[in-house]
Amino acid sequence: GENVEQHPSTLSVQEGDSAVIKCTYSDSASNYFPWYKQELGKRPQLIIDIRSNVGEKKDQRIAVTLNKTAKHFSLHITETQPEDSAVYFCAASGTSYDKVIFGPGTSLSVIP
Amino acid sequence: SQTIHQWPATLVQPVGSPLSLECTVEGTSNPNLYWYRQAAGRGLQLLFYSVGIGQISSEVPQNLSASRPQDRQFILSSKKLLLSDSGFYLCAWSAGRYEQYFGPGTRLTVT
User: Is B40's Cβ below 8 Å from some Cβ in A?
Assistant: First the structure.
């Protein structure tokens, strides 16, 4: 089955700097890659996603890139703000089943 | 618009007691439904998912079970809780293989 790895597990950046979180997946048939943000004590919220026919997608300060050959994808946050502090999860979904496999998460701290 | 509800929001139960958590979705038909558990400071563990009424797939063998008695209702149960069942239980729905939306969660403490 699908396995998703995520690095780093914790990340601390200064406000205004960029943050990058990287994920790898094992199932070459996966074609959907969402990213979720979870603030302390709250539910995960979908912040951006990318599908296998697209190499990059951007939404304001957030961007995702996908390299299907290498089976890895990344989340880039520019001009970080304290409210970006949260746990971020990457995930991958294959074609033959209706489920999403999540990475272990990255705890991002943005220092004012 | 679609809305997902979970209850209760918090629950404290003794070891060996039964459990029933409920999840309902409004504003959509025939959603895919999912149960996840999140231990403190950990990731999301998929427990069960359902693509239709009466169709349940189990991801992790344990003392939990799930049922889908109605199209938009998903129930997580246990006959006897263990200490290790403590965690944050999240229900989620999707319209297919793509975007999943989570409910507010139930925080379960087994004492």
Answer: no
> Hey, how many other C-beta atoms are within 10 angstroms of the C-beta on B60?
10
- CA neighbours within 13 Å on the CB side: how many for B1? 2
Average pLDDT score over chain A: 93
DSSP B84: G
Distance of CA B84 to CAs A7, A60, A95, B87, Å? 27, 41, 33, 8
- Which residue is closest to A106 within chain B, CA to CA? B43
Share of chain A above pLDDT 70, in %: 96
Alpha-carbon span A96 to A29, nearest angstrom: 8
Identify whether the C-beta of residue A49 lies closer than 8 Å to the C-beta of residue A32. Answer: yes
Exposed/middle/buried for A77, CB within 10 Å: 0-12, 13-18, 19+? Answer: buried
Distance from CA of A94 to the nearest CA of B (A): 8
For A81, other C-beta atoms within 10 Å of its C-beta total 12
Query: Torsion over CA of B9, B14, B18 and B22, rounded to 10 degrees?
Result: 0
Alpha helices per DSSP H over chain B: none
Q: What is the pLDDT of residues B30-49, one digit of tens each?
A: 999 999 999 888 889 989 99
Contact A25, A48 (CB under 8 A): no
How many interface pairs between A and B have CB atoms less than 8 angstroms apart?
A: 52
